[in-house]
Amino acid sequence: MSLPIEWRISDQLVPYEEALAFMEERVAAIRAGTAPECVWLLEHPPLYTAGTSAKPEDLLWHDRFPVYQTGRGGQFTYHGPGQRVAYVMLDLKRRGADVRAYVHDLEEWLIRTLARFTVKGERRDGRVGIWVERGMGREDKVAAIGVRVRHWVTFHGVALNVDPDLGHFQGIVPCGISQYGVTSLWDLGNTPSMDDVDCALMAAWKDVF
Questions:
Q1: What is the rounded distance in angstroms from the CA atom of residue 52 to the CA atom of residue 40?
Q2: H-helix or E-strand containing 105?
Q3: Is the pTM value of this prediction over 0.90?
Q4: Residue 9, CB half-sphere, CA atoms under 13 Å: how many?
Q5: In terms of DSSP bridges, do strands 83-89 and 122-124 run parallel, antiparallel, or are they unpaired?
Q6: What CA–CA distance (Å, rounded) separates 191 from 79?
Q7: Which residues lie closer than 8 Å to 35 by C-beta, 6 or more apart?
Q8: What is the distance, to the nearest Å, from the Cα of residue 70 to the centroid of all Cα atoms in its chain?
Q9: What pLDDT, in 10s, does the model give residues 94-142?
Q10: Which residues are catalytic?
């Protein structure tokens, strides 16, 4: 039996502070049992976020975009227009209380979403996120994952590159990994709209969660 989920979809760019405030409020409400679990699909203005493992030297452009310290795991990540961010707020106590299984499910969610656009997304040991092979030994990252869990309630989530300005990733060492590149659905030759991506995310969710 599937658990009730509230899906929120924002068509306008959402300031990062607004998203953080909403997540904090919703996570507390989910824990208290006064609000349903929630998945929020949105885009941010251009910005960088620093996870709990971020290294100062991995921020290469200090004055280009705002930089936000955040309590999620991981290192530096870029968010901006053309990237679908999914903030996932779930009560893991109701879902097996297994953080590793949860992260694996997020990966599977992204892999199945990409498959709907004939893109083969793959996991890589020791590298967070979802990767695609480009040929000639090249691999690029197409989606990032960064989560936080408080009292068994999740927040933050995933970011899928649909058609962002890939040049903006040059301002950081994404997730601390410099020897691989970053790609997007459009860069790979698939040109879905954001609505198409949202539909794929919601359909793939049912297969995984």
A1: 22
A2: helix 99-115
A3: yes
A4: 9
A5: unpaired
A6: 19
A7: 6, 26, 29
A8: 14
A9: 999 999 999 999 999 999 999 999 999 999 988 889 999 998 888 999 9
A10: 175
